[in-house]
Amino acid sequence: MSYKRISNIILCLFVLSCIVASGCVSTYSTVKNPVGYQSTQSGTTVPFSKVMNPSFARSYIKSDIITEVEFLSSSFQGFSFEEGDVPDGYFPFQVTIPGGNLSSTQGDIVFAPKSLFKTILPLKPGDLITLRGGTLVRVNSLFTKAVAYWGMVGDRPRVFFQATNCTTAATKVASN
Q1: 148: pLDDT confidence band, cut at 50, 70 and 90?
Q2: Structure pTM?
Q3: Considering Cα of 145, then 26, then 138, then 119, what sign does the dihedral take?
């Protein structure tokens, strides 16, 4: 057998094992901070563009930071969540940075406690929201990285914001 034929067989076996493994393992994993990690000080205000940047997002995992966003939408055209994306007891909606593109169909994703649904439901695109919480960072599995190597999917981490509280101009007025 020629070397080229053997290398093609090995490549085919590798691809086949990746396909089989994809049904056995998730396509991503949630990043956790190492034991003893010091998160950002509670109540610190951080610009949303920095919070959602993959280079900084790990600094805000399970943090209690404050950031301001503009509501974009509670629908997700062209986006599908994988099983386990949305934490139990939370619902997703889309936001953008203050002054961001409100005509976009896809913004950054925030998960808020279901108890806050009545606060978020009446919002219109562009309404300001003050969020408190931290990030969830999901990285691709080895299989997804292998597929990304061949250009079939992106390989960047997925960053979400998990809010513990949301305040809008309407709720600030109502609480006064």
Answers
A1: very low
A2: 0.70
A3: positive
